[in-house]
UniProtKB/TrEMBL annotation:
Modified residues annotated as N6-(pyridoxal phosphate)lysine in this record: 198
Listed name of the protein: Serine-pyruvate aminotransferase/archaeal aspartate aminotransferase
GO molecular function ontology, one term from the record: L-serine-pyruvate transaminase activity
Family, as annotated: Belongs to the class-V pyridoxal-phosphate-dependent aminotransferase family.
């Protein structure tokens, strides 16, 4: 077989991630590779940390990108902050809460589950009850923005409850960072992780994290050695901490970090509050258009993520057929449902560079046309007009 250079078709990515990557970011990643200990690259690392502090709304010294996807950010937080024998309260309202529980159990700790229905926020009262029943718990873990369902939990309240019971918090903000309000310092979050490929509009492969002094003190007081060499923050900080001479830990993904730097620079240029507002405005426009098409959002209004929308599939419509046609005929990718929601919902992401008016109109027009062909009625022109009004007034 003869192989040639891979040339993917341009797609419009409106699923749960990755999102469309801005041309500025792709251009930044094509710049010349330099060494991971080059003084120029060291200076870039310091800028990335400062820009991440802006995105997370924190002054935490330990704020940096981990080399790996969001799942590596998750595992980094767990293996450093949880020891064998610890009791951890894990809030599960979707796939990624389940993965938190898996991390806890693989470490040799005990997971106490606070379960809520998929598509709903974590119930603070259930967390309070669990902590009262387990006063020896040391950590509370929850997903702020559940990628599998589009539900947003009240992170500020959940952290307050955890701290009242002397627990530190681990928060999944993979889909939240850059797309909806996230205030690491104001909400007193102890450890948080995110991903580069969602609302930051960068490529997959980097996981921003931030840990406060309370979390660092827990790491310093560990009785057991961190079970992962690669994710041991005691070692990684020898490379990322600018207050000391940089020591080799691993070869950083240099060009990917060029891209993250550009993405964070663009976020600062737009303004973090303005980015949150843009995602919310486009969510309202999508909702208006979907309603005109006769489609409904699953998550209750006060618990919805603006950047990831869970849409009920009409009765008699086959999920896979619709998504396959959208991809083949419009180069448009929507996300499928996961777990109990598989085949019942679509996940429409409006994240980062994907959150643009032209993508809204493409999505509504294409989805409406395919559904009409399959026998589902809906006012396509009305959907486009309704969305336009929400975006432009």
């Amino acid at each position: 077989m003869q192989y040639t250079s891979f040339q993917p078709r341009p797609r419009t990515l409106l699923g749960p991630g990755p999102a469309d990557v801005h041309p500025r970011i792709l251009a930044a990643m094509a710049r010349p590779t330099i060494g991971h200990l080059d003084p120029l690259f060291i200076a870039l690392m310091d800028e990335i940390k400062d820009l991440l502090r802006y995105a997370f709304r924190t002054e935490n010294r330990l704020t940096m990108p981990v080399s790996g996807p969001g799942s590596v950010g998750m595992e980094t937080c767990f293996v450093n902050l949880v020891e064998p024998g610890d009791k951890v309260v894990v809030c599960i309202n979707g796939v990624f809460g389940t993965r938190m529980k898996e991390n806890v159990e693989r470490i040799g700790a005990t997971a106490v589950v606070v379960a809520d229905p998929w598509g709903r926020a974590v119930d603070p009262n259930k967390l309070e009850d669990a902590l009262r029943a387990h006063p020896d718990a040391k950590v509370v873990a929850f997903v702020h923005a559940e990628t599998s369902t589009g539900a947003r939990s009240d992170a500020k309240t959940l952290v307050e409850i955890a701290h009242r019971h002397d627990c530190i918090t681990i928060v999944d903000a993979v889909t939240a960072l850059g797309g909806c309000e996230l205030q690491v310092d104001a909400w007193d979050i102890d450890a948080v992780y995110a991903g580069s490929q969602k609302c930051l509009s960068c490529t997959p492969g980097l996981a921003p994290i931030s840990l406060n002094e309370r979390a660092l003190e827990r790491i310093r007081s560990r009785q057991a050695r961190v079970q992962s060499w690669f994710m041991d923050l005691n070692l990684v900080m020898g490379y990322w901490d600018g207050s000391q001479r940089r020591s080799y830990h691993h070869t950083a993904p240099i060009n990917a970090l060029y891209g993250l730097h550009e993405a964070l620079l663009m976020l600062r240029e737009e303004g973090i509050e303005q980015a949150w507002a843009r995602h919310h405005r486009h969510h309202l426009a999508l909702r208006a258009g979907l309603e005109a098409l006769g489609l409904a959002l699953i998550v209750p209004e006060g618990e919805r993520l603006p950047q990831l929308n869970l849409v009920s599939i009409p009765e008699g419509i086959d999920d896979a057929t619709v998504r396959a046609r959208l991809l083949a005929e419009y180069d448009l990718e929507l996300g499928a449902g996961l777990g109990d929601l598989a085949g019942k919902v679509w996940r429409i992401g409006l994240m980062g560079y994907s959150s643009r008016p032209e993508n809204l109109m493409l999505c509504l027009g294409a989805l409406g046309t395919v559904l009409r062909d399959l026998g589902h009625g809906g006012d396509i022109d009305g959907a486009l007009v309704a969305a336009h009004r929400q975006v432009f007034g």
